[in-house]
Structure formats: C-alpha cells, structure tokens
Amino acid sequence: MQKKEHRISHILPGSIAEELKIEPGDVLVSVNDVQIGDVFDYHYQLNEEYVTVVVRKPDGEEWEYEIEKEYEEDLGLEFENGLMDEYRSCSNRCIFCFIDQMPPGMRETLYFKDDDSRLSFLQGNYVTLTNMKDADIERIIMYKLAPINISVQTMNPQLRCKMLNNRFAGEALKKMRRLYEAGIEMNGQIVLCKGVNDGKELERSIRELTGYFPHMKSVSVVPAGLTKYRDGLYPLEPFTKEEARQAIRMIHKWQDTCMERFGTHFVHASDEWYLLADEKLPSGESYDGYVQLENGVGMLRLLLDEFREALRKEDGKEYRIAANMQQKVSIATGMLAAPFIRVLAQEFMQRHPDKKIEVFAVKNDFFGEQITVAGLLTGQDLYRQLKGKDLGERLLLPCSLLRSGEEVFLDDMSVRELKNALQVQIVIVNSNGQDLYKAMCCSDEPE
After folding, report:
1. CA–CA distance, 446 with 331 (Å, rounded to integer)
2. At 22, phi and psi to the nearest 5?
3. pTM listed for this prediction
4. By C-alpha distance, which of 92, 89, 63, 269 is closest to 170?
5. Rounded Cα distance, 50 and 46, in Å
6. What SS3 state is found at 199?
7. In this structure, are residues 215 and 144 in contact, taking their beta carbons and an 8 Å threshold?
8. Model confidence at 123, in pLDDT bands (50, 70, 90)?
9. Residue 200 binned pLDDT confidence (cut-offs 50, 70, 90)
10. Which stretches of 144-298 are DSSP H helices?
C-alpha cells in the first residue's frame, strides 16, 4: 500500500511535466514501479534515461507515462511537501541549543527543532547523526548523497553525550566513520562552548577530524549564541576578547599543519571570532574557496573584497554613478559587524566626500545584548533604536534580517510596517559587496 500521497503543487514552465500536461493537484503514484518514500527516492529513480511514471488524476484515474530524457534531467514537478515525507525533529537537548533560548509567544515554526539528514543535502543544514538509523546511512551510501554537514561539537564520545544530552550521541560518531569509509563527502561544525569543548578538547577534536581527510572537506568552529532566556539551562558564559584570540591562535596553528600535510587549511574560524577578538580578517585564499560561507565563515572577507573590487571598477568607469545620488544613506546592522561596515562606509566616503553614509549599530534587546549578529535583529529593535534618527533618504538593511523568501523580520514585523513607522525608504541588500556598493551610491547596474 502507498503510505504517503505525493500531491503535486506546481509545474515548472517549459518542463517535461508541462509538455505531458501533468497538472497541480495530480498525485505521483510511482516511478519505475517503485513507490516513492521521500525526495531522495524520487530523484534516485529519475536518474535514468528511460523512466515510467504513474500519476493519479483528481477523478481517480491513473495515467502512465513512458519518458525518454537526459540521464539527470528533472521532470519539473514540485510537491506540497518538499521532502515528500514528514520532517524529523531533534531528539537532543543540546546545552547550547538556540531554540531552547527563545522567548515565548513567537510563531510556532520557530520552536521546531529539526535534525533531518535530508535537509543537510537540500538546504545545507547541520545534523548530529543521532536521529539516523543504519538504513539511513546505507541509503546515503547507496545513493551517493553528498555533501552531508555534520554537527560534530566534540570527538570525545562521553563529552558529546553530555553536550547533546543524549546517551547515544557518542556512539553516533561511528556513523561518521562509515560515511568516511564509503567515500561520502562531509563538512563538520564545532559549536564552541566556554569551559566545555574548548581548549584541549578543541585540540583533540580538530586532530581527530583531520583523520577523516580528504572526505571531510572542512571544519568550522563557531561560538555558541547565548540569549537572555537561559533560566534553568546549562550555565554557559560568553567568550572574552582574549579567549577569542586563543581560539583563533589554535585554529591558525592547525591551518598551518593542514596546509603542510594536505594542501588545504581544513579548519576555519567563523567571522564572529575575528570581530570579537578585534583581529584582522584572514585573506580570501585562507578560506579554501569559501566552503562554509553559509555558516558565517569568510562572509566578511568576501564582502570586503567584493566591495573594494566595486570601487576599483568605479575607477575604470565600469559602474555608472547615478547623477541624482542621495546625499545621505544610513545602514543598520548588528553590534558585532557595525565597526566593520563603518570601515567600508569610510572608504566609500573618501571616494565621494559629498556623500554621507552613517552606520547604526543596533543592540539586540529582544534576545539579549550577548546576541550581536545582524541576522537575529528584530523589527521592533530596529524601530525603537532608529526612530527619531536622521536616516537620510534610504535605510539599508542586510537580507539576513528577513525570513527566507519573505519581507518579514523574526518578530513578524514586515518591512513595509517598519518603513511606514520610520518614514524612510528601506532597501534590502544582498550579502555581497557589489550590492552593498550599489546600494550606497544608488548606481545603475554595470554596463
């Protein structure tokens, strides 16, 4: 019996499905006589040049299609459930879990803890492996799914059980060994908690993870985010400037070792460490092609290089500056990145002394002042701290402030509501230097 109904929600224009007149509301029954469990089964069965697809129409009639196509060509179907299955929730109670530090009264979806390996492949999420059964590992190996992003935290099995509050968390590390032996590409992450998995434990974790090279492509080290809502939770403390510098020194030492042994830096500190330590960002070459960019590793260096490249192109007349460029533009960002963004603003104003760029560092009152990254600012904090300020003609906000695909902040305030409240034009800026540069100067697109 078919356990799940895979109802089609959308047909991509120009696709095979559109040509065959498959329609939204139809239900996928099978591919190659196989009943599909989830999105990975679906794509695996489609990796053929000849496929047989059965679709059930709303009136109950089943249509069978015999399709000839390119080997990896998609049919152009989108489903009501992107995973084509239920989402797997997290079975851990990590001592650093951000969701456990959320205030009450927010929308329900923000409290869902996912630990679904499929989201690692589809969206880049990091998973602990504790939710995965042997059959899940075998399927990854059979389908050759990669890369999988793993929340390692520590290579000490006993300490991992403590950090994840899961007695099976240490045993789950063996699954990483199976993936390595099967040649599955991986990326690792260590959320560093002061006095728990730092110092000698961090040294041990990095050392043991180098043993998974070359299939473990990279490892990032990020500081745990601590909100003000930690009553009853494990007593974690923020890292000081000197402690951040110690973590950076250890990571750089291992980068030197890995460059000598493997020709890659392998382990990387997230941008927060350099801002917290007030230390210079590494060169772009140090990030090995920015393999963990979405994890906050190298985003600022890439932004800086792209911004300066845009300035260079201005010299070469590749960018056309708008004749009616506004005299003042304001930028709002988190406390951590604000000094860095001010440096870029100063470089811009040196080139354009008649223009003014003012950067506002917004404190996170909603989650607590220990949360200093821009991506966790709320609309209400932006409003309270920017109201009454001279924001000029435009307020620039980073896209990381918004819910994915929507113009809504974490607290459900919309961009339109903030714009009306502050009475200023708001421009959402993508996280690259060219877009920041163009937003500052209101330039046209490159010719």
Report:
1. 23
2. -70, 140
3. 0.84
4. 92
5. 8
6. coil
7. no
8. low
9. very high
10. 157-164, 173-181, 200-209, 241-262, 271-277
**Sign of CA pseudo-dihedral 161, 165, 168, 172:** negative
d(CA 105, CA 203): 40
Assigned token pair, 134: 């042997």
pLDDT above 90 for 321: no
Average pLDDT on 364-388 reads 94
Mean pLDDT of the chain: 90
Structure tokens of 72?
């990896």
Cβ proximity of 255 and 267 under 8 Å: yes
Q: Which H or E run includes 416?
A: helix 415-422
Confirm if 35 and 68 have CB atoms less than 8 A apart: no
* 349: nearest Cα among 254, 341, 148, 429: 341
Choose the weakest-confidence range: 136-140, 157-161, 376-380, 423-427.
136-140
CA–CA dist 343, 359 (Å, integer): 10
CA distance 296 to 274: 12
**CA 426/CA 413 separation, integer angstroms:** 14
Cβ neighbours for 84, distance < 8 A, ≥ 6 positions apart: 4, 6, 36, 37, 38, 39, 41, 42
Tokens read off for 305: 């290089």
One-letter amino acid identity for 209?
L
d(CA 169, CA 158): 8
For 381, the enclosing helix (H) or strand (E) is helix 379-386
pLDDT digits (tens, 9 = 90+) for 36-71: 888 888 888 888 899 999 999 999 999 999 999 998
Q: Tokens 């690792």 map to which residue?
A: 188
Residue type, 60: G
Indicate the length of the chain as a whole number.
447
